[in-house]
Every structure is written in structure tokens, then in C-alpha cells.
Amino acid sequence: MKKILTMGLAVASAMTIMACGKAPEQKPAAPAAGAAPAAAAPAAGLPLVGVTVYKYDDNFMSFVRRAIEGAAGGKAELSMQDSQNDQGKQNGQIDALIAKGAKVLAINLVDPQAASTIVSKAAAAKIPVVFFNKEPMADVLKACEKCWYVGTSSPEAGVMQGKLIADSWKAHPEWDKNKDGKIQFVLLKGEPGHPDAEARTKFAIEELNKDGVQTEQLELQTGMWDTAKANNLMDAWLAKHGDKIEYVIANNDGMALGAINALQGKGYFKDPKKFMPVVGVDAIPDALAKIKEGVMVGSVLNDAKNQGLATLQLAVNAANGKDPVDGTTWKLDDKKAVRVPYVNINKDNLKVAEDAYK
């Protein structure tokens, strides 16, 4: 993704010192004669929450979006927007949401570097912002009085995935095909510059090494979180390295599933002697099915349900002029962020992840 490095952004960054205040109280419109009670609900005082998602067809974000929609019932009117992985489009959507009268913005950034621009737009309209899933720079949140973040601790997923890999490797010495005591791995990285992609990549390998497992990187390329791109990369790596690959590490389940598709196309998993360990992050239902089948080693539950719930709860509180975590079980850390914890998932505790999607 292209970084936004223009002078306009520099000016926008300076404006983040402005407080993103609460929108002026709007008087509810009178219901039309004969209108059904259900139709009158938004006019009866439910705040309008403007939501943008960086792209709807991202596997994980589809579940976060569903959770936001489910949590909004009776609490907020939503205006949901698909930014289609285009920061310019997202900026325009935010302008339109402000013009529409949104009392709070819930923003899943396309580019984290654009946060200061969005904060400036919200500050000018005196409305608060809840960023979710893609974390802005800490100084952006700190400078804005009414801005918060809902997501995870990016290093935590990498650390936990590294532990998952180490435990599985030690339990299966037969996976060391050349018996050199090292994991020869390929790694499918998410979007370059994305905090989760960078942290998961770094800390997964660091944790493996801390756990006494030696590693040798055969390939590391970006699959941009995308199943089809990961499939193509895995095909190319198999053609280049073949059975020298001993482990496939993916920054998310979408890419892990793409790798599995490519492996199955080359006859892997049909014969127990032709097994390739694959791990991901998110523990989405399609990945859970592969874990249950014994095709995928495991994943790290990125709790979409609670991320969506927390995002909606903070947004509604902010829209109503309350403390963002008022009446919730969430706590803000020193970076004004709610951190939803990760959980390692394998065949032994699948139910934990399955329950997260109920």
C-alpha cells in the first residue's frame, strides 16, 4: 500500500491536537403519519454510527462487520461502507458520513498512515472516532481527545503463533525431513507496513528461536492477506523448493487456506507420509474445519465477535457523550486502546473458537 507522505498529510497531522468533540445534540425528527413503530426507531434518538471497513471481502473483517451489525440492534443506526482497499475512497466516505450527520465514526483504516487526516476531518466536525483492527500511530490517538482504538496487541499473535509452531514441531520429529534439527520454513506475510503483519512476522520467528527451535527461512513474501495470492505463491515455492519446505507459516488464515489449496493440488495430505504443517492467525470457521480434518495444525483466535462488540459499544458511548467504556467490561490501556486477547487453537480446543462465532 502506498504511504501518504504529502504536505497535506503533514498539515493534517498538525491538526490532530484539536479535540474530536461530541457532535451537537440532534433533535429527533417527527415520525410520519401512520409510520410503523420499527421504522421510527432511528428517529427516536438512536445515534448514527458511520462505519467504514477497509474491504468487505477480507475473510476476517467480514466477521467483525457482522459482529458490529449484530451488536447495534436497539442501540445505534449504522451506515456501513466498503472502502475497497482504497484510502481515497475511504476519505470520501468519511466526508459523506459527516455530511449525513454521523455522531461518531468507527474506522477500519485502509492505510494506518492516513489516521491523522481522518482525525482532522472528525475534529472539524466535532465528532469522536473509534478506530478498529488497524491501529493508528500512538501520537495520533494521544493528540486527539476523543479518539480510541479497538483491536489486539500485535506482538501477542506472533508470540502465540511461534509457541504453537514450536510445540507442534517438538511433538512431531518426523516433520524434520532432512534431520538437520532446523525448520526450513516459508512465510506468507500480510500487507507490508500493517502493524499486525510486521509484528506477527517478527515475533513468530523470535519466539520459535527463544523456545530453542532453530529456523531457516526459504521464502518470505507478501500475500496481502489474500487466499488467491497465497495459493499462487505456494505453487511457485513448491516448484522451486519441493520437499525442502518443512513448515508453512501464514500471517492470517486466508493465506493459510490458499497455501493448503496449492498443497492439495500437489497431492499433499492424501497420504500421511506427505503432510505439510500449516498454521495461520484468526481461527476463522473455514480454518477450523481444516484443523478438525487434521489438514491444518492450528491457528490463533483473533476474536472477531468481541472486536466488533467492543467497537460498537465504544462508539455508542462516545456518540452519547459518555466515557467510551462506560457500562462495559472493557478497559483502556495507556495508549487509549481496548485490547481483545488472542487464544491459541488446535484440535484439542476447537470448541473455544467455534463458540466465538455463535
Automatic annotation (TrEMBL):
CDD domains: PBP1_GGBP (cd01539). Keywords: Calcium, Metal-binding, Periplasm, Signal, Sugar transport, Transport. One of its GO terms (cellular component) is outer membrane-bounded periplasmic space. Its main location: periplasm. It comes from the Bacteria. GO terms for molecular function: carbohydrate binding; metal ion binding. The keyword Transferase does not apply. PANTHER family: D-GALACTOSE_METHYL-GALACTOSIDE BINDING PERIPLASMIC PROTEIN MGLB (PTHR30036:SF2), D-XYLOSE-BINDING PERIPLASMIC PROTEIN (PTHR30036). The ABC transporter complex is composed of one ATP-binding protein (MglA), two transmembrane proteins (MglC) and a solute-binding protein (MglB). This is D-galactose/methyl-galactoside binding periplasmic protein MglB. It comes from Ephemeroptericola cinctiostellae. The lineage of its organism: Bacteria, Pseudomonadati, Pseudomonadota, Betaproteobacteria, Burkholderiales. The gene is mglB.
